[in-house]
Amino acid sequence: MITSIWTWLTAPAQWSGAGGIPTRLWEHIWACLLVLVIAAAIAWPLGAWIAHAGRGRWLISVANAARAVPSLGLLFAVAMWMSGMFSGSTLAFTIPPTIVLVILAIPPLLAGAYAGVHEVDPAVRDAARGMGMTGGEVLRKVELPIALPLILSGLRSASLQVIATWTIAAVLSVGGLGRYLIDGLASADYAQMAGGAVLVAVLALLVDGMLALLQRLVVSPGLTGRRRRRARTGIPRATASRPTA
Amino acid sequence: MIRFEGVTKKYDDSIAVDHLDLEFPDGAITCLVGPSGCGKTTSLRMINRMIELTSGRVTIDGRDIRDQPAAKLRRGIGYVIQHAGLFPHRTVVDNVATVPLLNGWDKRKARARAHEVLELVGLPGNFASRYPAQLSGGQQQRVGVARALAADPPIMLMDEPFSAVDPVVREQLQDEFLKLQGELGKTIVFVTHDIDEAIKLGDQVAVMRVGGRLAQVAQPAALLADPADDFVADFVGRDRGYRALSFADTPSLPLASEPTIELGASVDQARAATSDRWLLVVQDGRPQGWVEPARLTGPIEADSLHRGGTVARVDGPLRASLDAALSSPARRGVLVDHEGRLVGTVRAHEVLTAIEQTDRPRSDDEASGGIRLGKERG
After folding, report:
1. In this predicted complex, what is the ipTM?
2. Fold of the B260-356 domain
3. Disulfide: which of A26, A101, B154, B289 matches A35 by Cβ 3.0-4.6 Å?
4. Beta bridge mates, B279
């Protein structure tokens, strides 16, 4: 089995042309990127605003409940509902899965942004306001930077989910690595199916690793605990300390 | 001068502050003190509009605080809170530079100023690049004070700034804060629930009672000597008479010279130095502790000293002199000069005689509303 996967993966035919791995990989990456950009554009401002303003918390609950919706079922439902709208265009295949995956990606992104901003120490927020920051400044300069670790955690879990689920979207004749699984299934080519699955897994791990690296780079060391060791030199003793006799 | 005129804060079903009339004189520390729920923090937060008042008026130098946008008002007022509220994602120096940057200073100038202020609060340069999580609670509070001072505001609002640190560090922070205020002369509103802290730090103390009413406003000495009513007397607490001695400068006490021995001296030298049970050990003229020559088995070492006695400054308050006498194992209180060198010893009854001869602090000042600034502190 492993040999046949290896043979499939290393065959020169897989690495060129319209059905080749590079093309499928790019299709997959672009589709996921588009989904994540749209989802983040909706979820991040919304989550941050809900936490900052303390209003509309029910939206978080609704989003979390939406995680329970089965993605494949939703995919078919949206595809059938929209089938008439883009007849004849390839958009008829691309748009429904994009919408479904955006819906799928929103909950983790929203929860990350909300939890991140919500968990900012009230004393920190109070100090920021008390020093004369406007609401927007508090959000930009204090709440968002402090929320960054959780925002990025949300992004990581959303990315994993979107990369994995775009594979399923291949049932709707869209590009991406899912083609190997769906087409392999149709033609009973199990080496192709397994090879596709390996590729998806590798892509997901790579992206997650890159985001982890990004997290290390952009999150302030003051937040991560990487520089949490206690001060070694003590404070100078006060001149007023009293000697004893 | 900050002035409250009939200031009231109402919430739906309760009154937090009730028709408060109060003046906070320039260059002085006014302590707002009272039990929880007395509206002291609410009063403080109404000054920088973190809480908007319901009715009445707050003015700063005659100008209504509502005349300008809240954010602009706040940038001109230092703000220190209980848990410091430092920005965890920013280094110490960037925390301190916050308000100068908000005021549009360029980054280099703001940082230079931040380093300057950090020095002022006793945090040397190597702290600047650390993050708040790397600091102790006391150090975080210092940074909090530095951050409030960075833009050099004439007014500082301090909401229980020292109450979250342990007692030893708290006392140290209080002493340094008084020293700093002696140099800077800010108009300070200081909220605390600790009457001792209020009495120690305040030029003026305003005691508030539950329901947001002012119970008494007076200088600390007058508050101890003449509480306005049972509530204030109760709140000010026990040992009022003793604590009031903190405000009475020590008159010239009859000092006795004390035989001493240098640290490191031998048993024989110690036994030759005195016939008394206790012998005072000094180093470079500075008292180190007491020993019992009869019990010595070897040279006098730092470890073997009895250090239970306190040391008082000869020009300090009477309370310290009395405490030195009471706490000394030899019953002789050790008095030192401003450099910590031994001047002589004094007995408790001699301090008491001196106290008998001092006038009780008077409470006339509060009646006229005036307060004496720049009072001496022991």
Report:
1. 0.79
2. CBS-domain (3.10.580)
3. A101
4. B291
